[in-house]
Amino acid sequence: MAYWLFKSEPNTWGWDDQVAKGDEGEEWDGVRNYQARNNMRAMKIGDRGFFYHSIDQKRVVGVVEVIAEAHPDSKADDDRWECVDIKAIAPFPRPVTLQDCKDDPRLSDMILVNNSRLSVQPVTEEEWRIVCDLGGYKD
Predict the structure, then answer these.
(1) What's the pLDDT score for residue 116?
(2) What's the distance, CA 2 to chain centroid?
(3) Global pTM?
(4) How does pLDDT run across 60-101, given as a tens digit for each residue?
């Protein structure tokens, strides 16, 4: 299993919107960055991800699971863009902020800490464990 982080503006698509989609999940559409798209191409069904509220909140708020591998983005006019489908698994008992991650020296190499603009990014197994611990989430 691999781990990822999915960033979204909460006023556009937030954790509550994701939860409302239930087990059918939702396309993670609208990504127009090649590196983020390539990250989605590497995903497999069952991979887990952090759901991250960007902009003013800047925090991990929940855990999602990949339920469909990369396929054409239904909202794109260009076939270069692909997406995966994800479903909500569970909220974080305590959201983990970007500042929490920056303040933890064990996360100094985390992409979120060093490239907070990338909308879909890999997370190492160790980073996954640390952030889950910080948020009080038990896998």
Answers:
(1) 74
(2) 12
(3) 0.96
(4) 999 999 999 999 999 988 989 999 999 999 999 999 999 999
Decide if 36 contacts 119 (C-beta within 8 A).
Answer: yes
Give the dihedral of Cα atoms 17, 70, 43, 24; nearest 10 deg: 40
Assign 27 to helix, strand or coil.
strand
End-to-end CA distance of the chain: 13
Distance of CA 103 to the CA centre of its chain: 20
* DSSP per residue, 32-70: --HHHHHHHHT--TT-EEEEEE-TTS-EEEEEEEEEEEE
SS3 88: strand
139 pLDDT higher than 90: no
